[in-house]
Amino acid sequence: MSRFFSAKYKSLMPYVPGEQPRDRKYLKLNANESPFPPSPRAVEYASEASNLLNLYPDPDCTGLTTRIAELCDVAPEEVLVAGGSAAILNLAFMAFCDRYHPAAFPEVTCGLYRVLAELNGVPFKEIPLEEDFTIRAEEYMALGRTLFIANPNDPTGLAMPIPDLEGIVRRTPDNVVVIDEAYVGFGATSCLPLIHRYGNLLVTRTFSKSWSLAGARLGFCVGNPDLIEDLRRVKDSINLCSIDRVTMAAGLGALSDVEYTTNNCRLIRESRRFAADGLALLGFDLTDSVANFLLARHPRVDGRALYLKLREKGVLVRHFDHPALAQYNRITVGSLEDMQQLLKVLKEILGEDE
After folding, report:
1. Which of the four pLDDT bands, split at 50, 70 and 90, describes residue 353?
2. pTM of this prediction?
């Protein structure tokens, strides 16, 4: 840290993403990436756009915004596209939070929320989960805070019932409720239909998971036009052209091939069932995940020790230091072959510990 570093950031603990190793080839099950390549149409569109990199991109992402609006059954003015859902979440903290509008989110959830709150100097409250890792809706009602809720939640993979989410939005009329639907494509129900009933609801999505575009950094949000305009004012003050031509084209190509993504999500759900059944047979306890990952622990093996043993054997999973998660590891659901390899390695490890 240099002597020039601003005092307001000296206590900031940056977000730590899933490891991207370079020292050897691993079975990567630690970052919730798709095991499938992007749609061929996404690659085709991106390749064509690369010939126009001498020109600035459309700052309004008009074509992509229009296509998203069509798929979500909303108006284009109810959509904002940005460089990943993380960028949109940061815009939401900037636009809708301050000392008069503090934030609240689950204590066990995406670690980015806390980082963004601290980065933007926003007071925040972390609400503990129930013992079974579920979110109790009543804890979030009438708090007088801007709310951030991942549904399904990360790293538990659990989803809240839509009536519970609607109750939270309805009981928070004077604050924005941000529902982060990064993992909704793998089996959860979206709350997008609620945006026309509630002007304080903002739903965020990413192209990183179900659309196989984690390397492109692309996301969007849907909400009341006034909320979208608020976010746009902040975004355009920071970075007018936040998405390059190639990424924009890749997103449009992916959205023109919905069948490809739908089929991949189906395959992930099948792999999830296979992996969950296999882990249960090995004695693991799991949450009832509807995301593209599983949260698992074994009664005989310490969580961090298992993470390290898997790493030694060429399998990367995600371990968290949070006390509530210390005995768990989050395992990305890959292809069926990936899950077969995981179970084989786990069987070896558990056999060594007997």
Report:
1. low
2. 0.94
